[in-house]
Amino acid sequence: MAGVFGGVLNAVAGGGSFVAFPALLFTGVPPIAANASNTVALWVGTTASGGAYRSRLNMSRRVMVPLIVTSVVGGLIGAYLLLRTPAHTFMRLLPWLMLGATLLFAFGKRLSGKRSSSLANDASTAALWGACVFELVVAIYGGYFGGGLGILNLAMLAALGMTDIHAMNALKVVLGAVINGVAAVAFMVAGAVVWPQALVMTIGALLGGYFGAHYAQKMPQAWIRWSVILVGAGMTTYFFVKAY
Q1: pTM above threshold 0.90
Q2: pLDDT for 50-73, tens place per residue?
Q3: Do 82 and 32 meet the contact criterion of CB atoms below 8 Å apart?
Q4: Could you say which of 8, 14, 39, 67 is the most buried, measured as most Cβ atoms within 10 Å of its Cβ?
Q5: How many whole angstroms separate alpha carbon 201 and alpha carbon 206?
Q6: Backbone phi and psi for residue 8, each to the nearest 5 degrees, phi listed first
Q7: DSSP state of 36
Q8: Across 145-197, where does the E strand assignment appear?
């Protein structure tokens, strides 16, 4: 059930790890192994939701390739940091990151002014560089922990001028799948995944990811935006309580 709900959340708004990661901890999986297993399971769900969003993705290679390359690099760096460093310091920073991401998403339109989309196919070189720097930070975070990765990516896209929530979700799914994919491979190679729990959660995330993305596109954009903000606020509150 945590996998299904996590897959739905990631497809609609992000934040699936908010459900899946604690569920793994509850079964007795150690934090680092739980994080690795959660990443593998929800990566499958995120990839599945990409099939439902494929018609919404309309980006040129000039925009997509730099963002994907940056996501690969950042995801690998984040996975390496998780496997090599303790997580308690990062966990204390996590609620501040989530608070910033939620506020950034909520007020992204004001930050971007009246531009229709600075990440359009004719985006300037400066806009692409800015997006890649932002995405590198997001990808490192996603490879390290992953909780709220979707909200951080949506915040980045909102701040850079995108306004169509469904198109934003489509690009978010692609970037999230790349980040979690390279991190998942690193975790599997390192033997950090607890497979019995990961496989059960993967089945749930697969179902939740696809059907969540499919039905989310039938909802008004305002509803989806508010769901992102509410999920982000809930995650921020949870991690503040957890860390402090």
Answers
A1: no
A2: 665 666 666 778 878 899 999 999
A3: yes
A4: 39
A5: 9
A6: -65, -45
A7: H
A8: none
